[in-house]
Design a protein that fits this description.
- The complex is a heterodimer.
- Chain A is mostly helical.
- Chain A has seven helices and no strands.
- The termini of chain B are far apart.
- Chain B has seven helices and no strands.
- Chain B is mostly helical.
- The chains are: A mainly alpha, B mainly alpha.
Chain lengths: 117, 151
C-alpha cells in the first residue's frame, strides 16, 4: 500500500499520469468515471484492494464515483491470488474468474445508469 | 526546485499518513471483531438461520459452513474450509462450483466494504449489490445444473 501510494504520487508529477488518464477516458465514460480511475481498477484487479485504495485516495472522486469503483473492485479484485484459491477448490477457476470480471463491469455500468448524478 | 521537492515530500507523507490512519481506524477494529466472532463460532450459530432461505437457491446444508466462512472472513478462509469439507466427501462437484461462484462474486463482505467506506463510498450499495448479484447468478446456475445433479 505504501509503495503504491508513493509511486502514484511521483507518477502524478509526470505527464505520463495525464496521458494514461486521457487514454482510458473513453472506456471509463461507460462507468461515469474519470480516466484515472482505470489505474485504481487495474491495480485492484491485479494486486489487491489495499493497493487500489492507495491509488484511489488522491484521485478526488465524489461519493457516487467512489461507490461505482467500489462495486467494480468489490466483485473483481486480487485476481491472481484468488484465482489460485479457486483452482485449489477444484471449482472451474476459468468460469469463476471470467464471471467476476464480466459481472463487475456490468454492475459498474448498471450502477452508473441507475444512480442519478 | 528544492522547495518544490520538499513540499512534494511533505504533502505525500502527510497524505499517506492520514490514509493509513483512516484505514487503520476502520479496518483494525473490524478485524478484531471478525477474529472474536471466529473464536465464538458464530458460523455454527448462523448455519441453521441461513439454511432455510438458502436451500431455495440450490445450496445443500453441508455447503453452508464454507459459504458463510467465505462471506464473513474471506475467500482464503472459506476456500480452506471448502477444500477440507470436499476432501472429507461432504461436498460434491456441483455444490463446490456453486459455493465458489458465490464466494468469487461476494466474499469478505465487511472487510472489502469498509476499505471503500473509509474512502467515502456508500457501503450499503456496494454490499447489497454484491449479495444480490451473487445470489442471482447462483440461482441461475443451480437452475441449469439441477437436472444433471438428479441423474
Amino acid at each position: 500500500m505504501i509503495p503504491v501510494y508513493i509511486f502514484v504520487a511521483v507518477l502524478k508529477q509526470t505527464p505520463v499520469f495525464d496521458h494514461l488518464g486521457r487514454f482510458f477516458e473513453p472506456y471509463m465514460e461507460y462507468f461515469g468515471l474519470p480516466g484515472e480511475a482505470a489505474l485504481a481498477i487495474v491495480t485492484g484487479t491485479v494486486v489487491n484492494l489495499y493497493a487500489a485504495a492507495a491509488v484511489l485516495a488522491d484521485l478526488h472522486l465524489d461519493t457516487r464515483q467512489i461507490t461505482i469503483v467500489a462495486l467494480i473492485l468489490g466483485i473483481s479484485h486480487s485476481q491472481i491470488m484468488e484465482t489460485a484459491i479457486v483452482s485449489k477448490m477444484r471449482a472451474k477457476p476459468l468460469y469463476v474468474t471470467s464471471a467476476r470480471v464480466i459481472f463487475s463491469l456490468l454492475a459498474g455500468f448498471v450502477l452508473n445508469l441507475v444512480w442519478p448524478s | 526546485m528544492a522547495e518544490l521537492n520538499i513540499q512534494f515530500i511533505g504533502d505525500t507523507s502527510a497524505g499517506l499518513f492520514f490514509l493509513l490512519l483512516k484505514m487503520f481506524l476502520i479496518v483494525v477494529p473490524l478485524m478484531i471483531l471478525l477474529e472474536v466472532s471466529r473464536e465464538f463460532k458464530v458460523i455454527d450459530m448462523l448455519t441453521d438461520l441461513v439454511y432455510r432461505p438458502l436451500r431455495y437457491f440450490g445450496f445443500k446444508r453441508d455447503s453452508i459452513y464454507p459459504l458463510l466462512a467465505g462471506i464473513l472472513f474471506g475467500i482464503s478462509y472459506g476456500g480452506g474450509v471448502l477444500i477440507g469439507e470436499s476432501s472429507a466427501g461432504r461436498i460434491k462437484g456441483n455444490q463446490r462450483f456453486l459455493v465458489a461462484v458465490y464466494l468469487g462474486l461476494c466474499h469478505a463482505v465487511f472487510e472489502d466494504t469498509m476499505i471503500f467506506v473509509s474512502l467515502g463510498a456508500r457501503g450499503i450499495i456496494v454490499l447489497l449489490s454484491r449479495m444480490f448479484l451473487a445470489t442471482t447468478v447462483v440461482v441461475i446456475i443451480s437452475f441449469f445444473t439441477k437436472e444433471r445433479n438428479h441423474k
